[in-house]
Amino acid sequence: MLTARTKKVLTYLAIAFVVFYLYSRPAEAASAVRGVFDGITNGAGQLALFFSRLTA
User: Which domain of life is it from (predicted)?
Assistant: First the structure.
């Protein structure tokens, strides 16, 4: 089990990594964010399609 202090340190390290990644490779970071949002959009569309076919 992780202690509260360990979780806080890991959170700060993750934030530092994200900031470093954004400043060192902004184009790749933008592409990664775009990919995540495309995946979420695709998943939501598939879920909507599933429920529309389920109720039809």
Answer: Bacteria
